[in-house]
């Protein structure tokens, strides 16, 4: 772009990016300032870093924002960026408060997992044999995911958003109770997706659109098109970016648990992203390495905050806390060169299979150490962002069996209602004190499976593990990403209802 003497339009917000480049923090600052603007709002970015003049136009094209003009004054460049297209800008300028500067990191205690506090027990009732439960996410009403985006952009207050989310949770819990489940979830209604939502809660972490990180890949335009082909437009997916030492000054899911408990006396399950998933997701070279020297160092703080959260949730009355680690199947099944099978972790590096599984095992076991095994679970699937089975991973659980045998969690929640997952018979050697949640309906299939189909799948699991060790679930959640649900709420309720009918029939027999 050719420079001009001065900008023809006055900016709504300005900030000085100094010598930061687009791969080392400048995009985080741009996102911090541009999100609160209305469509057509103008942001001025000042910079003395020469590479920004080449990289910023590419970022604008990828994110759908317009680079309006450029000025130069010696070494300093001033970029005027319109949120969206300049043609969308209204006649009257809307006053927008200047976005706050990035917070400083909180004081650190000793590195690594601190000495374990006394392990708490939960007051929740035991989970019965052949219990029926969802995996987690529930289809969100359109008015909720619109509110989610407004909140992420700083245009909806926290109080307004939480009131809106409360209404959606009531609908999700009511649907599960009508269906007859034994264990209830809040449906992850307050989350933009199942994992990255923690980026909007943890200290020194920020949720930014995946498009902001595309300059970190070799061919960003090609990568963006690949993501769209998979059914997940990168501009709609938020990714957690770490810009300081992680802290947990507020609960991650405490509000979810408390509100769900106010709606039902049924046992409550709370879902959290697993420590390996979060480490893979948050470790981005040229971003997280500003705060952490290595991926392993980042993982230390992730283990700490997840363990703190686990103990708080159990003391708060959660019946079971589930950790999601679906990216493990990418480790086990995808070719070594593959990095783009999962949206979460798509930009991060991974090592060989043996190393990654050992790393994941260590992280999970450190989070749950000393906790009653009956109150912890691990969910593993092969991807759940699209109904197109052809683009999702395939492979039996055989490569993951050594990992499963060494885990200290008390329940494994696994998908089996798809040919991509192999057979239940592949689960040889699961410890006798570990329950197995068997996926008996496929959330990607719009058809509601019959009670007979579900019963047959469950009977196979009962023959292998015994009825007291079997839990019945869908393969995965019904809406991994807020605005791209896998199925409709009415279909999800029908699937759970038939699982409950099958479970009742099976209990009467065994």
Structural features, described:
This protein has 510 residues and is an alpha/beta fold. The chain folds into 2 domains: 13-88, Translation Initiation Factor IF3, CATH 3.30.110.40; 142-509, Alpha-Beta Barrel (TIM Barrel), CATH 3.20.20.210. The chain has helices at 26-34, 52-63, 142-152, 158-179, 220-229, 254-263, 275-282, 295-315, 327-333, 353-368, 401-406, 451-465, 489-509; strands at residues 13-16, 42-47, 66-73, 76-82, 203-209, 238-247, 269-273, 320-324, 376-380, 411-414, 435-441, 470-474. The strands form 3 sheets. A 6-stranded parallel β-sheet has the order 7-8-9-10-11-12. Strands 1-2-4-3 form a 4-stranded mixed β-sheet, with helices on one face. Strands 5-6 form a two-stranded antiparallel sheet. Strand 3 (66-73) and strand 4 (76-82) form a beta hairpin. Helix 3 packs antiparallel against helix 4 (158-179) and helix 12 (451-465) packs across helix 13 (489-509). The radius of gyration is 24 Å and the shape is elongated. The relative contact order is 0.12. Residues 91-114 and 337-347 have low confidence and may be disordered.
Task: Summarize this structure as a short list of keywords or feature phrases.
alpha/beta; single chain; 13 helices; Translation Initiation Factor IF3; 510 residues; 2 domains
How many individual β-strands? 12
Number of separate structural domains: 2
Low-confidence stretches: 91-114, 337-347
Quote the distance from N terminus to C terminus. Answer: 74 Å
Q: State the CATH topology of the largest domain.
A: TIM Barrel
Radius of gyration: 24 Å
